[in-house]
Amino acid sequence: MEDHSCWRCGSTESDSLFCQYCNSLQAPVSDYYRFFGIEKKLSLDPAELQSRFYALSRQLHPDLYTRANPAEQRHSLEAASILNDGYRVLRDPVLRAEYILKENQFEEGEERSRDVPPELLEEVFELNMQLDELRSGDMDARDPLAESEGRFKAMLSGIDADLQRLFSAYDAAAEGEPRRVELARIRTLLDRRRYVRNLVTEVDKVLAEHAS
């Protein structure tokens, strides 16, 4: 709540979803972490998040407010939208990281994610050759391409494990510059992940188009 005051009773201590004095539904805060009432961390307990989602769903369903004051009806619709969007983002590690990165002005590196990471140049060159061969009708390239895809999928798994370690480092870092250093590392790794994921998606598509 921006002004922290209840629209119904005027209490100035209504910095929560429901006024502690008249229990009326307040305008929902847009910050997903504050909305769910959880600490702003990158490593979250999925079970706790799910539990909070179900609890809030029971409290905020618009059907409960069909006969309520128009303000509460509006707040209910807004809250239900934030609840669903927030849950979708916070339960996904990558979307969760992108959310915090955007809050801290670390925008998605679309240009960087299209550049071949230097350490992958040789493997990507070989993969592109296999893709071209299979596209041209050389079915002998299918098995080597599938093997290359397996290596890149394993690479994705490794990147995800590295992200979890960086998440923990971010959560443990002090506010300010130490956390920004960790966010910069996360940004770089997510750009690399996006590049590798796009490669795997393209290989899946070509393999499906040239199934034996």
Would you summarize the structure shown here?
This protein is mostly helical. 64% of the residues lie in helices and 0% in strands.
Characterise the protein shown here.
This protein has eight helices and no strands. The mean pLDDT is 89. The protein is mainly α and 212 residues long. The protein has two domains: 32-101, Orthogonal Bundle (Helix Hairpins), CATH 1.10.287; 109-209. Helix 2 runs antiparallel to helix 3 (70-90), helix 4 packs across helix 8 and helix 7 runs antiparallel to helix 8. It has helices at 32-36, 46-60, 70-90, 93-103, 110-114, 121-135, 142-172, 177-209.
List the keywords.
elongated; 212 residues; Helix Hairpins; mainly alpha; single chain; 2 domains
